Structures are given as C-alpha cells and as structure tokens.
Predict the 3D structure of the following.
Amino acid sequence: MPALRKAVFALLIFLVLGELIVRFDSATMFFAGDRLVRLGSESRPSIVLDQLEGGTFSPAADQYRVMVLGDSYLYGNGVPEGERFCNLLEAQLRDARIAGSSDVCVLDVTVPGHNSAKNAEMFFKHVEQFKPDAVVWAYFLNDVYPKGEAAGDAMPSAVQPASAAGSPTSAPPQPEAKDGIRRHIQRIQHFAYVNSRLLKYVVPTLGQELKIRGVVVPGSQFDHERSRSHEPDYQPWQRSQVVLDEVWARCAADGIDVTVVNCPYLNLLGHYSLFDAVDARIGAYFRSRPVNYVRGASLFMDHADETYSVSRYDSHPNASAHRILADGIAGVMLQNAGQPR
C-alpha cells in the first residue's frame, strides 16, 4: 500500500509539474527549438487581384496569364517575397518569353485553408475576366476533405483540435458513439483534453514524433489520409472529382493549359513509400484527365537528405522548396509550349 501511495503521489507531481511547464512553454515557446515554426497569416497586396475584384482588369493581347490555385502550401507565409513560388514562376516564364508573349502575369489566388471545392470556386470567380492561358493547381491530399472540420493526428476522436501547421484544415468525420459507455468515455476525454495543456501538448506531439519517423498510428488522421482518403468509394473523394471535372471541362473548352502538382509532405521524404498507394490513386485520376500531372515528391527525391520543410513538424515548403517547385512546374509548362528550358 505505501508503494501504491508513492506511485500515485509521483504521478500527481509529474502531472502538476508537466502542466506548469507546458503552460509556461505555450506562453514563451521556450522549449520549442526547431520542432515548430509559427507561420503568420498576413495578407499580401495584389494589384491584379484588386483590379479583378474591382472589375477594372483588362487583359493585354500579348500577355501570357497564369492563375495559381492552392492553399497555404504555395501561399508562402514565412518565405521572403522574392523567393515564393508565384514570383519565381513568373520570372522564369518571363525570361523564357513563353509562347512568344511580351509579358507574363501570374495571378496568385492561393488561400490558406482552401480545399478542392474552394479552389474551384476561386477559379470560376476569376476565369471569365482574367482569361488565363494556363492554370497551376497545387493539390494536397487533404484537399479532399470538407472544409471547416477539426483535424489532428492520433487525437481522441471526440476532441480532435486543428493540428499544427503542415496538417489538414479539415478531416474525415468521426463516427458517433453508438453506446452509452463510449459516449461517457468520449465526454471524459473531451473534458480532460479541453482543460489540460499537458494533454494538448503530449498527445499531438507524440503523434507528430511518430509520423516523422514513418510510424502510422491506426485510426489517426494521418492514417486516414494515406490509406482511405482517395479510395474509390470514399464520398468526399467522389464529390471532389465532380468539382474538379467541372474545372477541367471549362479549361478544355477555353483552351487553358492545366498543370497539377501533387504537393508532398516535405518533412517525410525519407519515408515516402508510405504514400505510394494514395499517390498512385491520385495520379491515376489526374492522368486520366486533360491536365499535365506532376508528382511533387519526384522533384525532391534526389535531395531526400536535405531539409525542404519550414520545420521538423511542418510540411510547408521553405524557400529552397519553393524554388524546386517553381523550376519543376516552369519546366513542364515550357515543354508543353514547345520551348526548351
């Protein structure tokens, strides 16, 4: 009995000290190191977008216009302005005088948090007035999920908070508890998680540590992304294909060249065989459509030992990765235009 009391007392001390330390670190980021880089959410001025929104944009006849659609992956928070994908792509296409144009205009309508449906909405909002010659579509495998639902890796199903950067902004719906005992357990999980900074730190951090080592926790958000998210019978994927097909049909009718890049988890390049199955399903869809498909991971595989994510837990591309992505996409666009690099 004394041994049990000591064990309980030691556990209580651990929980109290852990709670205090995590609360201190949450306020100061004292122990964060390079595990996580907090990206801002600053908005960026765009003359072209302002003109489109104001109805004053007038496309020049000899201007090659490119619309770039995607989410925070290409938005480039934390990356210097001149080193972001859209700026690099515009410079490369302008230097190559693509399609004999005298100028190049890249419209950046990437928006953090967007999924396929929101990207399609942005496309149809601006296509009529902008009249793009080409579209670059940045696809990330979590784009299949409906926007606005919570997400997280290896979190209790009832309390999945939005994960740190580099993870989805939306997630597959969690099943409802089917019996009283399970609902009661979920309520306890929810209460403990909401009121404990220690649990909010330990649970997702453990999930992230396992993920970057290539360990997949069954039933986690990450497990769903790489195994279930693009199976033929998964309804959000079925609905996404309908939305995407509407975009490709409009592009084909207007003679718009489309390049789709399947954006990889850049902090998991050393374990990318985890994504072979889901990438094959994604690739099979895009290769069967009238688009130019680029498996983004292939652009980085020769450099898998280098760092291309903004931090250890965050798969957003850093400046070096933005350059590799811009080089790869510009190469595809120039090749399709019949021009050498």
